[in-house]
């Protein structure tokens, strides 16, 4: 059984268990490929499902399996941790890979960790609640920089997520045209990315270059980054489309 089949089997088992027990059950954090498998088999689940990663724009998400006639309130088992330099004056300039590397050396499975996001002079780790105390105790250094952790509300993360507002001009709002504009690629290069299964829209792998981008689509391109397609804002004198989008800074 390959990884795709194992992922599908695990999700279907969770759905059946939630239905049988009458309680909400949760997956671990799923990456983009696993989320695509989830979307492909949504019709096969024995329960309703929802997905969430702690913040609305999260790339890695947990699936909730929700049985019918549920009589209690529930929340996703997600904790948000703020990582700050203990001594800002002496702190190195750190990147996403530095923090992820330090987190992974602690021996926690990647599936227990959601997105790692950049804030204003700090980072935020989204993780499952049951591993948060371990991170609080063990994550004391990133590279050579001493850090301190605190539990925060996800509202704080949303208010500090750095976005870069951008404008562009495209011939049409097809996916291949939009990606070529955003990442300064040729149309053939963006086609190659789509055909190589490296493009995801709202967590779903899109293999069709003619997909029409819609307002509020979150588009992830493996190896390039992620952006929020906001709107078509007008036309040029030559009939080309003006677009607005935001790049996620990480």
UniProtKB/TrEMBL annotation:
<dbReference type="GO" id="GO:0003723">
    <property type="term" value="F:RNA binding"/>
</dbReference>
<keyword id="KW-0694">RNA-binding</keyword>
<feature type="domain" description="RNA-binding S4">
    <location>
        <begin position="173"/>
        <end position="240"/>
    </location>
</feature>
<dbReference type="InterPro" id="IPR012677">
    <property type="entry name" value="Nucleotide-bd_a/b_plait_sf"/>
</dbReference>
<dbReference type="Pfam" id="PF17774">
    <property type="entry name" value="YlmH_RBD"/>
</dbReference>
<dbReference type="InterPro" id="IPR040591">
    <property type="entry name" value="RqcP2_RBD"/>
</dbReference>
<dbReference type="InterPro" id="IPR036986">
    <property type="entry name" value="S4_RNA-bd_sf"/>
</dbReference>
<protein>
    <recommendedName>
        <fullName>RNA-binding S4 domain-containing protein</fullName>
    </recommendedName>
</protein>
<dbReference type="Pfam" id="PF01479">
    <property type="entry name" value="S4"/>
</dbReference>
<dbReference type="InterPro" id="IPR002942">
    <property type="entry name" value="S4_RNA-bd"/>
</dbReference>
